[in-house]
Amino acid sequence: MTALLDVQSLRVRFPLPGVDTAHPSSSGYEPLFALDLIVKDLALAQALADEHGLAPSLAAAALDEFRRAQAAGHGSLDYSAVYLTQGEPRSAPHAPGPSPRDPARASPDR
Predict the structure, then answer these.
(1) What is the sign, positive or negative, of the torsion defined by CA atoms of 93, 65, 105, 19?
(2) Residue 36: C-alpha distances to residues 14, 52, 99, 104 (Å)
(3) CB 88 within 8 A of CB 67
(4) What CATH superfamily classification does 28-87 receive?
(5) How far apart are CA 35 and CA 99, in angstroms?
(6) Do residues 7 and 73 touch, judged by C-beta distance below 8 A?
(7) pLDDT tens digits, one per residue of 77-89
(8) Which helix (H) or strand (E) holds 26?
């Protein structure tokens, strides 16, 4: 059961500032792996899937979210900065997310 609850990406990319000083969110989302690069990689993976007649819906949804963050000007930040666009209005109908948080004001006890 522990393995199911252990998400490696949250150990190194927790999206809320102040949880751990080693996380990019605690240093203004200074990139360990830039959001622009994850968009490029996911777009390449999506194109390869398309070539083979596959439809990886989770990858497509992730790519959409990362592209929204990129369009909001977060491309040079760490990919965990995708969190900053959660809850913002979307151009396509999606389920509403949580309210966006200002990284300068966010704290782990909220």
Answers:
(1) positive
(2) 18, 25, 24, 22
(3) no
(4) N-(1-d-carboxylethyl)-l-norvaline Dehydrogenase; domain 2 (1.10.1040.10)
(5) 21
(6) no
(7) 999 999 999 877 7
(8) none
Q: How do residues 95-107 score in pLDDT, each as one tens digit? A: 444 434 444 444 4
45 closest CA partner among 31, 26, 68, 66: 66
What is the sign of the dihedral through the CA atoms of 58, 23, 8 and 87?
Answer: negative
**How far is 37 from 49, CA to CA, in rounded Å?**
18
pTM: 0.69
Question: What is the Cα–Cα distance from 9 to 74, expressed in whole angstroms?
Answer: 19
Q: List all residues 6 or more positions away from 3 whose beta carbon is below 8 Å from its beta carbon.
A: none
The first and second tokens of residue 109, run together, are 């006890």
Token digits of residue 2: 């522990």
